[in-house]
Design brief:
633 residues; alpha+beta; D-Amino Acid Oxidase, Chain A, domain 2; Glutaredoxin; 3 domains; 22% strand
Length: 633
């Protein structure tokens, strides 16, 4: 996606100490809503207010700012990248886009100074959407005193995490499986541990089961020695105070089986694993929206959480920009929920199945997490509940100690029939690939919108598979409506050997649609009519003419003559592989056409041209995408 292109060139090792109690206020040129001065001389109505300065909120701020003609980012890459580094990278990008990060003291409780600010240390305590705008009451501490101020906006976006205050204040419920597991995350550094693992057993995830402790070690950076340990947590018998930095260092030593003197604990945080999706993503007359973990929260199995949230931001940014700029009515925002909620539901089920697959490994070893949770509930609600809290803790530790003995050498060996059976079961799980899966190209790149801001296919409409295996590794590019634009390397300048991806043809700094055609006469006519309709609707359209390598001679003059007087077009020459060309990969003829949205998803395509009047067809297509009714009779 577009925002990741910035990451390819810049890897800033910043440390994140922010929390979700932060606002990003976006100020854009807008026509769709009233401007300042709606209330009184001292009040301001901001077009957009984002509550939550995590990765999703920050990415949405960047995308919205770019759709105010601010800046362009560069090509995409895939990487294992820790969230706090990503957060600081995004904050740095917002600074480059003119944002200021400010504390409550610097604002002094004055709303007027909030334009294009990231307001740290503020907490949303009330939301009022009874007027033509949304009023957020923000609370902060200034000089030891709690101060409240009202911030007015046309659109409020809640990206404030799994425990979203925005979601709770507007009364949106979550649906799904709650409280799957309580855990504590321990973020720490140890170069010695990193070097040890690089030498002995390099990897990204380490599932550790021994008689002393159980946990999952996430290696963010082995060379720098950056890790996060995820450890089961059982309150109220255990409290977060039990996980002091000193106690965590001892626990880390137990988990890895040796001591490392340079362990530096950075952060200790409890959290609860859920598999839930909000019943609604949008409310209050399309003025309040949820994105990221505020709208869906998954088990961290497969890395769907933040990725799905950033997809939300990518989907939402161009739609908000279209409404603010008056290109589309506010009803277009409904397509955000129409498109993203099915993806969230699918990814919730997939991550849940993947989590269960991961838990099959400890279960095979006699460490079934469901049994541990049942024991814990028995102590809380059963006979154990009559014991003093101290004895409950002793009982819990004792029972879990007996459980961990299942992975002792005495039990887990080939000479022991029970141990031999468990080891054989474990080998089958691993050999058949039925444990945790980490690669999901079909889901990460192949997700498709079936309805929304697009022209749906009238045939061969596929639904997400009901049987979730987590092993659909095959990603087949598609030019069907709702799919992501397929990737292929092309040369924009026929005289240059420099190549770019077809995804780079989509602008990142304006709400611009891309019409992809071949250099044939009827397609040029379609492009001219599309330009006329785009001009009527005051939207930006660029035409990309795809030339094959063997037909590229004289391409510049050919397109210039065919598309005159229109100038917003680009001739590109495909870099043909040994297996397919562009139109063959898209499974359509070179008489076809593809219309791409600003978020790189296909809004409309035709496999062999337009049968009727191309002007009427382009009017129909853009009306359906933007939700405008100018051409309806």
């Amino acid at each position: 996606m577009g925002f990741l292109r910035f990451m390819r060139r810049n890897n800033y090792p910043f440390k994140d100490k922010t929390r979700n109690r932060a606002y990003a206020i976006q100020h854009m040129q807008h026509r769709g809503f009233s401007k300042d001065g709606v209330l009184n001389g001292n009040d301001v109505v901001h077009p957009i207010l984002i509550i939550g300065a995590g990765p999703v909120g920050l990415v949405l701020s960047i995308l919205l700012t770019k759709l105010d003609l601010e800046q362009v980012v560069s090509p995409v890459s895939v990487a294992h990248f820790s969230q706090y580094k990503l957060t600081m990278l995004l904050l740095k990008q917002l600074e480059n886009l003119g944002f200021q990060t400010c504390a409550p003291e610097s604002l002094g409780g004055k709303e007027q100074s909030c334009d294009k600010k990231i307001m740290m240390g503020h907490e949303c305590v009330a939301i009022d959407s009874s007027n033509d705008f949304v009023t957020v009451t923000a609370s902060s501490i200034i000089k030891g005193k709690r101060v409240e101020q009202n911030i007015h906006c046309n659109i409020l976006i809640g990206t404030d995490g799994a425990a979203s205050t925005v979601r709770k204040l507007v009364g949106i419920e979550m649906r799904g499986e709650k409280d799957l597991q309580k855990l504590v995350s321990i973020h720490f550094f140890s170069r010695d541990l990193g070097q040890f693992l690089l030498k002995e057993n390099p990897g990204m995830l380490f599932f550790i089961f021994n008689t002393e402790a159980i946990g999952v070690l996430v290696a963010h950076d082995l060379r720098q020695g950056e890790f996060v340990f995820q450890i089961p947590f059982y309150p109220p018998q255990q409290t977060i105070e039990d996980f002091s930095p000193k106690a965590c260092k001892k626990l880390i030593s137990k988990l890895v089986g040796r001591e490392f003197g340079d362990v530096n604990v950075i952060d200790i945080k409890p959290w609860i694993m859920h598999a839930e999706v909000a019943e609604r993503f949008i409310c209050s007359g399309n003025r309040i929206l949820l994105a990221g973990d505020a709208a869906h929260r998954f088990p961290p199995a497969g890395g769907f959480g933040m990725n799905t949230g950033i997809q939300d931001a990518h989907n939402l940014a161009w739609k908000i920009a279209s409404v603010i700029k008056g290109i589309a009515p506010s009803s277009m925002l409904n397509t955000y929920e129409i498109e993203r909620k099915p993806i969230a539901l699918f990814n919730t089920r997939l991550s849940l199945e993947n989590y269960k697959a991961a838990m099959s490994v400890p279960a095979a070893l006699g460490l079934d997490p469901t049994i541990a949770n049942t024991v814990h509930q028995f102590i809380i609600n059963g006979i154990g509940s009559i014991l003093p809290s101290g004895l409950q803790k002793v009982a819990l530790d004792g029972i879990f100690g007996i459980g961990r003995a299942q992975v002792s050498e005495f039990v887990l060996n080939e000479s022991n029939p029970l141990g031999s059976s468990r080891l054989a079961k474990l080998r089958r799980i691993l050999e058949e690939g039925k444990s945790l899966q980490l690669q999901f190209p079909a889901e990460d790149l192949g997700f498709r919108y079936l309805q929304g801001a697009l022209v749906p296919e009238s045939y061969n409409v596929e639904s997400p598979p009901e049987v979730l295996t987590g092993r659909r590794r095959d990603y087949t590019p598609s030019a069907q409506s709702g799919s992501r634009l397929p990737h292929m390397f092309v040369r924009v300048n026929p005289l240059s050997e420099e190549t770019v991806s077809t995804l780079d043809l989509v602008s990142g700094d304006t709400v611009e649609f891309i019409l992809i055609i071949a250099p044939v006469e009827e397609s040029y006519r379609l492009a001219c009519e599309a330009f006329k309709v785009a001009e009527e609707l005051e939207i930006s359209l660029k035409v990309c003419i795809f030339w094959s390598t063997d037909s590229a001679e004289g391409l510049e003059e050919g397109s210039k003559a065919a598309l005159s007087p229109w100038k917003n077009y680009t001739d590109v020459v495909e870099v043909r592989s040994s297996t397919s060309n562009w139109w063959g990969m898209c499974n359509i003829t070179n008489r076809g056409a593809i219309l791409v949205r600003p978020d790189e998803h296909i809004a409309w395509s035709t496999s062999s041209g337009v049968a009727g009047d191309p002007r009427v067809e382009m009017q129909r297509v853009f009306s359906a995408i933007l939700g405008v009714h100018r051409y309806n009779k």
